[in-house]
AMED_5909 family protein (Amycolatopsis melonis), 83 residues
Amino acid sequence: MTVRKGEPKTLWDAHEVVMDRRPPNDANPSVWLAFRLGNARLYKAVADVDRGHHHEALYWAGYEERKAGEISAELQAEGAPAE
């Protein structure tokens, strides 16, 4: 994965982007799922660029993937398709 021009290049920048685009607490679970999956992609990309924080960025990518998995499981239990 690569970080395109204008995208975060450090773990700190990635955290700021994540907080800026965070949906409201009462947002639809599918919105939260998309948010979590996007965060995982972002942290994976940053891990390749910010080598000093490589392992920490991968931790955050895994965290976001786990959270997305929880949301997806909840949606499936409710009978809603997980996008």
Remarks:
- Residues 54-78 form the longest helix (25 residues).
- The chain has three helices and no strands.
- The CA atoms of residues 8 and 17 lie 8 Å apart.
- Helices lie at 11-20, 29-49, 54-78.
